[in-house]
Amino acid sequence: MLPFILGIESSCDDTSAAVVEGTIVRSNVTANQEIHSDFGGVVPELASRAHQQNIIPVIEAAIQRANIRKNQLSAVAYTQGPGLLGSLLVGASFAKSLALGLQIPLIESDHMQAHILAHFLQRPGHPHTPPSFPFLCLTVSGGHTQIVLVRDYFDMEILGQTIDDAAGETFDKAAKILGLPYPGGPAIDKLASEGDPARFSFAKPTIPGLDYSFSGLKTSILYFIRDELKKDPGFIDKNKADLCASIQATIVEILMGKLRAAMTSPQSSVLSPQSSIHNHHGSTAPLHQSLVTGHRLPDVAIAGGVSANSGFRKALSEIGKKEGWNIFIPPFEYTTDNAAMIAVTGYFKFLKGEFSDQSGTPYARSRW
What we know:
By secondary structure, the protein is of the alpha/beta class. The protein has 2 domains: 4-123 and 333-352, Nucleotidyltransferase, domain 5; 135-330, ATPase, nucleotide binding domain (Nucleotidyltransferase, domain 5, 2-Layer Sandwich), CATH 3.30.420. The chain is built from 10 helices and 12 strands. Strands 3-2-1-4-5 form a 5-stranded mixed beta sheet, sandwiched between helices. A 5-stranded mixed beta sheet has the order 8-7-6-11-12, sandwiched between helices. Strands 9-10 form a two-stranded antiparallel ribbon. β4 (73-81), α2 (85-102) and β5 form a beta-alpha-beta unit. The two termini are 33 Å apart.
């Protein structure tokens, strides 16, 4: 009999609870916080207060929709970090209390690892084949942009990441400059479908290796629009769709460029030649060879909130066909912050017996 794991996610402004039976999602409930749209971004203090209001009804709804009783739960998993500390504390405190009261194991989950493990979630009635180990995952969210080599469920290595701003943050800041509502990513994505992605050009970073940088792009967008508004105060309104399409195309091009480099360029400076992994044919090869000549990783996945972007998904599908990659894109409901990914992370830890105690504390920044 598969265990029932309750997952609790409260890293930012979404209060979410989910129940999985093994890797099968029995429920996934999320309460959004609309109040932040008035401020053009998440206000940490308001977020933590809203979590306190939402967490009990959200968890009750998740258990009810899963059609189980609380005493059927095998463990409680919660997001330990990274995220907003005030928000994380609400979820962590409730998870600890619930696990203690039910006398069941408590499991800590890393938010970024959970985004990747969302690929192993199964929706009832939907055939699903997850990526095979090892695979590359491009994780793109409001606060993170990472290229991760995934050898196993908890054996992951960051090959490249942003050295300043994240791609999701760039979408939001660009949207704010254009006068679009928060969150900016969906607003830009919607308008981009009506515009010309080649109409305007913006500065692209020249960062060595597999790391990303988006601060220069944000500055380029800001200065370009500032200068154009001086010439024509109605510039944004007259060109909003083309601006959105061009901004989105630039961000996607930057993301795809580094991903292609990770799949095709020698990684001897990043990956240890002595490390070994098993490829899809069961043989063992040096890790750096598995990424380059003769042993390229065929499976490429995306994760995180920005993976819901239609331009990003389309570009990945196109490059996958061109390069011969197997592309894995999660369903929309598992791209943004959700508790199902926390619950399935808890399930894999449950199988290994990796439980936590009451002394665990949330962390704001990634511990990878």
